[in-house]
Structures are given as C-alpha cells and as structure tokens.
Specification:
The protein is α+β, with helices and mostly antiparallel strands. The protein contains 6 helices and 6 strands, in the order αααββαββββαα. Helix content is 29%, strand content 16%.
Length: 200
Amino acid sequence: MLSCNYFIRKIFPFLSLVPFKPSTSRTFFFRFARLRLLRSNRSLRRNQAFHIHTMTLGSGGSSVVVPRNFRLLEELERGEKGISDGTVSYGMDDGDDIYMRSWTGTIIGPHNSVHEGRIYQLKLFCDKDYPEKPPGVRFHSRINMTCVNHESGVVEPKKFAILSNWQREYTMEDILTQLKKEMASPHNRKLVQPPEGTYF
C-alpha cells in the first residue's frame, strides 16, 4: 500500500525539496503554508503587501495588523536571499520550530576598527509579542562593547537605542546593522577585545 507521504509528494511535488519526516499534521500544514507564502503571490509582495505592517481597509479607516508569523516569514525570506554586502546575516536556529522563536545572527566587524575581520555570532529570540516588542539579543561570541553585558553577552536595551526606542516596523536586520555601526562608533572601535574565537 502506498504511504500518505507518497501521495503528498505526488500532489505537491515541490515538497520533495524539503526533508520530510513523520510529524504532526500541524507541523506539516505549517510547512505547507510557509512554502506557499514564500513561493506564491510574488506580484503581491512586489506591491509591498508584506512590507506594510498596518493597512487601512474600507472607508471606516479601521487598521489590520499583519500577523506575527507572516512578518517573520518575510524576514526569513530576506535573510535567506542575503543582505547588502554580506557582512550581516541571520536565519532560524530550528526549521521545525513552528513559532519561529530562535534565530542566529552573524556580523563581520567593520573596517578601521578593532573588530575588522572578526566574525561575531549572536542569538535573537522573538517571543510571542514580537514585533510589538523587540527580540532578546545576546552575543554568543565574546565582545567588548558599551551596550553589551560583559558577563552574559546580552545587549542591554537601555544602552542600545534601537531596542530602547523600539517601533513595530524595525526588524532583526535593523538590529544587526545598527550593532555593526555601533562597533565602528568612537567609543567602541578602539576598545580592547577578548581573544578571537572565545564565547560567552
């Protein structure tokens, strides 16, 4: 007897591109929805439907907020395509996490600073209230910066403007880009750094 997986692959051949393993129906349908969102409605995305986080419907002026997972799917797609010059990147830690909470970021240190050429790894955690509230951000690679806790590697919101003045339209890319700029700032670019390749 042919398995259910066989028919799923026959009906939706693009699923063969994704490793498939026994899982709950909930996980399967999330994966299916994710693929559909990423690979269809290209014209809709070109019109920035997913770039607008609030939109007005009807003459009443009521606003509808784009759901959290749609927003994170958009960020995931952008991260997979690559960002600008490649010195900042990010992606999901666990592709099976249907809540899309844990992410890994990478920053290559800016030129003309003690960080030049260094590769820094970070962890970002998008809780259920993201993007209404900022993600938790923590350096995994050891670094000496004024906004980073020297013991835990946590980026302290009170010392990092984009987190302390968070707005819904900000993204993980914005956070990583701003951290790179902060590395090159006068009060950080010459600070003595821990040995390269050490971690919190």
